[in-house]
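Protein 1 of 2
SEQ + STRUCT:
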Amino acid sequence: MSEFTLNAQARNDLGKGASRRLRRNADLIPAVVYGGEKAPVSVSLATREVAKLLLNDAAYSSILELNIDGKKENVLIKALQRHPAKSFVLHADFIRVVAGQKLTTMVHVVLLNEETCVGHKTGGGDIFRLATELEVTCLPQNLPDAIEVDMANVELGQIVHLADITAPKGVEFTALAHDNNIAVASVQASRVAAVEDENQDQPAAAAEAETEEK
């Protein structure tokens, strides 16, 4: 079901002190697995293995196969606590994925056809990503790797809202269910062009001012 796997070990030594010892002495990351009808389980993960997994952006919103002491569970990354300065993971929360039960999670946004976008190629505008990820609700087997937004026909000054995007089969946008039609991307006039136009106007304005003084 998943192309991502992660090994873990159950742990009974809990608390902040135990977590610090895990990170410092064993190069392990403390984590918790919860959800479904099972009780929460505290586990530890190899720091190197987690770092390698997170190099792939798709892992953040994909179903992972978590191997806990030989017992496999399908999970999603629910939250990652990172070091404020060095950004490495200090703690992870995973939520269980139950077959036949809908889940709600965040999925990354991918913009397609940026180079051929009408507002960019013809209109000279800049493309802005207004939402980097979107919350979706779906069954586990319908969870997409990303939400694709086709920018090919987006014109200068146009904003792409959530309702303008076709959701993958079996996927619902959570925001729309709450009547929140959020902005996802847009094409706006280039800031560089605006600055150049402003600079070009300055000599003329200065000449007019000089004429008035005379």
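Protein 2 of 2
SEQ + STRUCT:
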Amino acid sequence: MRPAHLIKVLNKEFHSASQGQHTPVMLWGAPGVGKSQIVAQVAELNRVPMIDIRLSQMEPSDLRGIPFRSKDQVEWAIPSMLPNEQHHGESGILFLDEITSAAPSVSAAAYQLILDRRLGQYEIPKGWAILAAGNRQGDRGITYTMPAPLANRFSHYEVDVNLDDWVAWAYKHDIDDRIIAFLRFRPDLIFDFDAAKNPMAFPSPRSWEFTHRALQKFVSHSDVLLETLQACVGPAAGVELNAFIANLDQMPNVHDILDGKEVPVPKEIDLQYAVAAALVGQAIRVKDQDHEAHYHGNILNYANQFPQSEMGIMMISDMHRAIGERIFALPEFAAWADSVADIMLFD
């Protein structure tokens, strides 16, 4: 399931916890596809805490607690990391990450916590949802087969990589426009992982975020830039990205486009992707400014100039996802939509 749809599912599961209708959810996926990020987005969306417990680093006693003597009885000290209304609030997300990398003894300790929402005398607060994530066998990670009794305590979803969803996330988190443009140009490189080849660095949603950081730090150091990009996404993708960035000195001035000046569309397809990504980034940056409508209108006008209408559709679709339905009120949008009405329905 694509991330945007999973966020809807997990958001519904979170709200169902307080109604007594919650089913614990297990997310499956290869390394770096964004499982943890999806859960974090749901917590951020609802402005609630997320307690991230890495079960691969736990011992059974870390969950069950430590026994101590109380008069003639033995009681258990409840671990402080587990949700507590007084310390953590009435609602939130308990995220059991790396659950497939946990030793069987730890998984067994989690059975009662996941299904019955309790461990001994401890009980998870009513408003807390239980979500978990792990890698699949064959993903070159340390994984154990999930026991049937544990698997039967979850609903299960496979996390797919979707470029449109990643691009929407990237614009929201100020990822460098050049990386977004490159992945629009080479969409197959958003995720390229082959466990049989035993790669150390490979393209993934997570490693492209690392690449963004590397680009901010080393873009002015041409002697090491290529190596730093390869260190994040692997040798082949690093070379392609470096060549793509080097070619951008031929890109037209996007500020002239914003100002409504006559700017020819570059003939090279990679530069067209770069212009489109840069214009969406500029649309986000001028949002809520005094001349927002003027700038957005000029971007819409430029969309009509691309030789291939699909390029303009991609750009305006990204723009719509980033700034919302305000673009529908612009007269330039009506003119653009009319020009492409024969090949698309705008959603």
